[in-house]
Input
Amino acid sequence: MTETHSKAVVFDLGKVLLHFDFGIAAKNLARHADATAEEILAQINQTPHLHAYERGEVSSEAFYRNIGTLCGYQESFEVFRNDFADIFEEWDVMVEFMRSLKSEQVPVMVFSNTNEIAVSFIRETFPFFSEFDHHCYSYEHGMMKPTSALYEKVEHILGRQGRDLFFIDDKAENVEAAIERGWSGQIHVRPEETIPAVKQWLNS
Output
């Protein structure tokens, strides 16, 4: 797409465009493991193991082996991949809003703390994911939001700074980090609040 709009909208992924639940992954993994779903959840839900993976410090295969050792997981990597990643549901209203921005030639980016397995699974499963003009993933850059240097990567990719960027994220600390750099932003809870905020910003 030719980017004709001076402003760009940056979307977080989880709990903005996709609902997700690590509890589902824990139950999936528990079917093939010695540990219970509750024990597995304690190892994969916003833990040092997960964050190291989402910073790209360990490979997908190493993450698989680590969880296998910790939880007695006994299936192949391919089975693990689906057990771990099949936790998402599209948030239709927000996806349609992203598409409406594209139709108006507003550049859109996905900016997420995420991992290789999740991105691969989402790309295969949800067609909207390929429609973004740009992306910035934590695991590709060795750091996670709200690290300021990662926001700088976004600015470099988009060729825009400050008031020309609007960030939508469900976590307050991530939006606050964007605002500190001069971006506009919205802590996403309900589309009924987020969508008008973006539209008002675009028209200001």
Observations:
- The two ends are 24 Å apart (CA to CA).
